[in-house]
From TrEMBL:
The gene is panB. It is found in: Cytoplasm. This is 3-methyl-2-oxobutanoate hydroxymethyltransferase. The lineage of its organism: Bacteria, Pseudomonadati, Pseudomonadota, Gammaproteobacteria, Lysobacterales. It comes from Dyella choica. InterPro entries: Pantoate_hydroxy_MeTrfase, Pyrv/PenolPyrv_kinase-like_dom, Pyrv_kinase-like_dom_sf. GO terms for biological process: methylation; pantothenate biosynthetic process. Pfam families: Pantoate_transf.
């Protein structure tokens, strides 16, 4: 069992105020998913700022067709495993599908993910009225919130598939307004997924909180990928916004370190990883 990752370089713990300072100073934020203690230890060693226990585990770990079957119990289980592999990296856990259907359920899920599983922040998709109420309630009880807009995987049936969002003018305006709304509700950071590069830049400039992109272009305050995608081991076609960082390298550790270096320098994502 990992109690502390002794092999990782010593560094100060990443905090919510620290992430805000990184945006203010123009330092890129690095985020990767992890689903167990061993992968978490790789993120810790490489100096990743944020580890995300995404409900993407439903697809890349469980082999589901979407993230929708993932349960809160499963999120608590995987989050607690990842927590054991971390010391300085900040831990974010996804709210699974319908865990945020009202404020009471969101508070219960947040309490379990933070208090029981060891997360430092919870991630919640969308910006409907009940979501904004939940963000406000969680923030009011000192549970930091990562909002998630753009291509939100829990809305896959509503979208008709995993499609780029915000390409039309009206849709882009909606994303900007939603981003401002989740910030006003109390979100501390925002994951922006699957939107045109120009929209990613616009949202990043409009917000005071850090914007972490995934398929949102190079102008975001940071980048996140699913670790199985960036290692090239997810079955099927790799997403356009991802890159195989394991290719030509000898270990997972080297691949994660390369991802960190390229995000920090701005080399990743390149133009071919974005959308028009």
């Amino acid at each position: 069992m990992y109690v502390e990752n002794a092999s990782a370089p010593v560094r100060k713990p990443v905090t919510v105020p620290g992430l805000h300072a990184m945006k203010a100073e123009g330092r890129k934020i690095v985020m990767l998913t992890a689903y167990d203690a061993s992968f978490a230890a790789q993120l810790e060693w490489a100096g990743v700022d944020i580890a995300l226990v995404g409900d993407s585990l439903g697809m890349v770990v469980q082999g589901q067709r979407s993230t929708l079957p993932v349960t809160l119990d499963q999120m608590v289980y995987h989050t607690s495993m990842v927590a054991r592999g971390l010391s300085a990296t900040l831990l974010v856990a996804d709210m699974p599908f319908m865990a945020d259907r009202n404020v009471d359920h969101a508070l219960e899920a947040g309490a379990r993910l933070v208090g029981e599983a060891g997360a430092a922040m919870v991630k919640i998709e969308g910006a409907g009225a009940h979501i904004l109420e939940s963000i406000h309630a969680l923030a009011g009880r000192a549970i930091p919130v990562c909002a998630h807009l753009g291509l939100t995987p829990q809305s896959v049936h509503k979208f008709g598939g995993y499609k780029v969002q915000g390409r039309e003018h009206e849709a882009a305006e909606r994303v900007v307004n939603e981003a401002l709304a989740v910030q006003q509700a109390g979100a501390d950071i925002l994951v922006l997924e699957g939107v045109p590069t120009t929209l990613g830049e616009r949202v990043t400039k409009a917000l005071d909180i850090p914007v972490i992109g995934i398929g949102a272009g190079p102008h975001c305050d940071g980048q996140v990928l699913v670790i199985y995608d960036m290692l090239g081991i997810t079955p099927g076609k790799r997403p356009k916004f991802s890159k195989d960082f394991l290719a030509g390298r000898g270990s997972v550790q080297e691949a994660v370190a390369a991802f960190v270096a390229e995000v920090r320098s701005g080399a990743f994502p390149a133009a071919e990883h974005g959308y028009n």
